[in-house]
Amino acid sequence: MAPLQLTVQHPDYDTVQVTIEGSLDLARAYDFDDSMRRIERDAPGRVLLDLRGLEFLDTTGLARLVALRRRCRRTGRRLVLVRGSQAVQRLFAVTAMNEHFELIRDPAELLATA
Fold first, then answer.
1. Using CA atoms, how far apart are residues 37 and 91, in angstroms rounded to an integer?
2. Residue 70 — φ and ψ, nearest 5°?
3. What tens digit of pLDDT does each residue of 5-50 get?
4. Do residues 60 and 34 touch, judged by C-beta distance below 8 A?
């Protein structure tokens, strides 16, 4: 499995964009969680999570995304996910999580509304 890599950008004053590459699975889920908690400390109003580079996502990784969603809702942040590969989107669909996340096809869709 590919290692997990996060790239963080700040496309505007109120948005943090995190691009995920590699695998978000049991071995890497809590590292992802720790990284996201550090990012959240900067208190961005919007978190844009780009899943297009995600090669593999298991239920543990999905649970960390759900935890991120819960934290964002609790603190009044907007969490938006850029759709991933067919395999990633299939996991979202099978678990009905696609109904609980705001999903877009391209980051420009969100950034155009800034």
1. 24
2. -60, -45
3. 999 999 888 999 999 999 999 999 999 999 999 999 988 899 999 9
4. no
- Nearest-angstrom CA–CA distance, 98 and 51: 13
Q: Say how many CA atoms lie within 13 Å of 43 toward its Cβ.
A: 2
Q: Categorize the per-residue pLDDT at 114 as very low, low, confident or very high, splitting at 50, 70 and 90.
A: low
Cα distance between residue 93 and residue 113, in whole Å: 27
Contact 25, 50 (CB under 8 A): no
DSSP count for the chain of H helices, then E strands:
4, 5
- The single residue listed with the structure tokens 């934290």 is 71
For residue 56, which of 30, 29, 88 has the smallest C-alpha distance? 88
Over residues 43-92, the pLDDT tens digits come to 889 999 999 999 999 999 999 999 999 999 999 999 999 999 999 999 99
